[in-house]
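User: I'm writing a tutorial on reading structure tokens. Could you give me a worked example: one chain, its sequence, then its tokens, then a sentence or two explaining what the tokens reveal?
Assistant: Sure. Here is the example chain.
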Amino acid sequence: MKQRLQLNDEQMTKLREVASRTEASRRTLRADEMAARRAMRMELLAGDNANDARVEELLEQLPKLERRRLDLHEQEQKELARFLSPVQRARYFALQDELRRGMQEVQRQRMETSDSLPHGRDRNGSGSYRRRPPQ
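And here are its predicted structure tokens:
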């Protein structure tokens, strides 16, 4: 990363600090988003028994989570602007997108692989049977 962004040692140290703080916040945000979506899915699976008040609460929560994501991105941009040039920041975000797409591709491949395994068998083919959720 240091070479791709053409960073000096001081910039690299500061980038690590900002990235570490930001990633911790992103992880928390992702967990909150997943929890909200999971809760919404559970309510919707309840069909006619879904709790309208809970669904309303979740519908209001989702845009707030998206706002948090945008605020986090804006905050990160401001912090990075203190020690990176605009070109370095643009390269950094392009690199992040590239890494994120790569990770998503690995996850997609893992899911495809696990879906192709015999029901109840792990990757090693052992007989540790698991109950698969209905599809």
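What the tokens reveal: The helical segments are 2-5, 9-45, 52-81, 86-116. Residues 121-135 have pLDDT under 50 and may be disordered.
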